[in-house]
Amino acid sequence: MADGLQQVKNWILERHPERQDIAPDLDLIENRLIDSLSFVEFVFLLEQESGVSIQMETLEVDAIRTLGAIETHFFAKTGAEAVQA
């Protein structure tokens, strides 16, 4: 797992001490690991860790629904192009 993605995972786990791990395909929103109160902070963290500028008005929720999707959209070598497309 890339360092940035691990930091994102750690951020989520810090807020949910009842969890030991997060599966790559677990729906973070449906399982309330990211809620409306933490959403903006989470997006800011993604920007910091990935180096990708995220436009809130064009952000596709599916791009941040799972750790697997986050890895694909923000941490894969072509992730920057995918997010801006």
TrEMBL record:
Pfam families: PP-binding. It comes from the Bacteria. Residues 1-78 form the Carrier domain. This is Carrier domain-containing protein.
